[in-house]
Design a protein that fits this description.
Layout lengths: L13 H19 L37 H27 L9 H29 L4
Helix pairs in contact: 1-2, 2-3
């Protein structure tokens, strides 16, 4: 096969990468807000709150999920994972923002870096917690 017939994939420009991130975040927000597929809005919460109970979560028949019910754990795990995805995409968007972190004054760079680290840790905790829920360890 000659090179004339191959169309190499061009690298994603920073502008296109940012647009893709914005689209992904908007999609996730629509899921969390219940705008996707006619689903009810997802309760917002701090994924670091290990005492969370899903108020108002119901099965397809409208019955509240029991804390020890597998569907309740799955429902909570889904929302934890979607929330973790949103947090990580937002952290990536912030890292792509202008000006880049390395060009900021030290104090501002430290503040932004701390906020990004906290957001990333929270996302990791949410993802880990979803694994605990799915395996019945929480």
């Amino acid at each position: 096969m000659s090179n004339a017939h191959r169309d190499p994939d061009p690298p994603c420009s920073p502008r296109m990468a940012h647009a893709h991130l914005e689209h992904a975040l908007a999609s996730i927000e629509s899921i969390l807000d219940g705008r996707g597929a006619g689903a009810p809005a997802t309760p917002r919460f701090d994924p670091a709150d290990l005492g969370i109970v899903w108020p108002g979560s119901q099965d397809p028949l409208g019955r509240p999920f029991a804390k020890d019910h597998p569907a309740g754990r799955e429902h909570a795990a889904i929302h934890l994972l979607i929330t973790a995805s949103s947090l990580l995409l937002n952290a990536a968007r912030q890292l792509m923002a202008e000006p880049p972190l390395h060009l900021l004054p030290p104090k501002e760079r430290g503040q932004r870096m701390n906020a990004l680290v906290d957001e990333t840790k929270t996302a990791g905790r949410a993802a880990y917690r979803s694994a605990l829920l799915l395996t019945g360890q929480e």
